[in-house]
Design brief:
The protein has 230 residues and is of the alpha+beta class. The chain has six helices and seven strands. It folds into two domains: 7-76; 84-228, 2-Layer Sandwich (Heat Shock Protein 90). Helix content is 53%, strand content 18%. The chain has a five-stranded mixed beta sheet. It has a two-stranded antiparallel sheet with strand order 1-3.
């Protein structure tokens, strides 16, 4: 498979990220402004403040990741020199998911890193972190309370693969098909755009995001670590 991401695809995704910044990030800021206004005027009690802040948090989390993806997407494809280095897979995975662990905790979602602590790899850490964070975030947004998301590593005869497995996820096959279809990018919201970005990034390196279903509500997302070193 030719390892080239079509320029028009890259630009379409970049433009869509800009549209999401305009629509979803600005909406989040408006919600925050409203929150500050009613807090000052009505002097809400602590419990009410907490509940409102909890209500607004998903907006800010999604908005923050949209901005982060816009920046990282352009950095990865800017043509700048890759940052290949040896890293501990377990430790970098931990560092990557730490920024969204509190969101999982608040939803009662158990986020587990099952990757062997002694495994190292030579590759681009930016790509690894980009893939891990976006897949885990999407899983979290579609997973019910009191569920789990697990990060696992498997070695095959020819490669090493990372899997993110989630229980009780309510995202059907038709929705996933739409999310991964570049031609449907304008229909994809900020909370789902990460999967499309991951799939397109993997295709750039001649790989793909593998998705397998185990029962009705258990999904496994898998990618090859060879993507990190091309």
């Amino acid at each position: 498979m030719e390892q080239v991401l079509k320029s028009e695809y890259k630009d379409r995704i970049n433009n869509h990220l800009l549209e999401l910044v305009d629509h979803e990030v600005r909406a989040s800021m408006a919600n925050f402004s409203y929150f500050l206004t009613i807090s000052e005027i009505k002097a809400l009690i602590a419990e009410e403040n907490f509940n409102l802040a909890t209500l607004l948090q998903p907006f800010f989390s999604s908005a923050g990741l949209i901005l982060e993806n816009l920046i990282n997407w352009n950095r990865i494809f800017s043509g700048s020199e890759t940052r290949e280095s040896v890293f501990k897979v377990h430790d970098l995975a931990n560092e990557t998911i730490e920024s969204i662990r509190h969101l999982c905790d608040e939803r009662g979602i158990k986020l587990e890193n099952k990757i062997n602590k002694n495994i190292t790899y030579l590759g681009d850490q930016r790509i690894f972190s980009f893939l891990i964070k976006n897949i885990v975030f999407t899983c979290m947004m579609h997973t019910t309370y009191n569920s789990s998301i697990k990060l696992e590593l498997f070695k095959t005869l020819v490669d090493t693969e990372i899997s993110i497995v989630t229980d009780n996820v309510f995202i059907d096959r038709a929705t996933l098909k739409t999310i991964l279809d570049i031609d449907q990018h304008k229909r994809i919201s900020g909370k789902n755009i990460g999967l499309l970005l991951c799939n397109q990034l993997l295709q750039y390196y001649g790989e793909e995001l593998k998705i397998s279903y185990e029962g009705t509500c258990r999904i496994k997302f898998t990618f090859s670590l060879s993507t990190m070193y091309k």
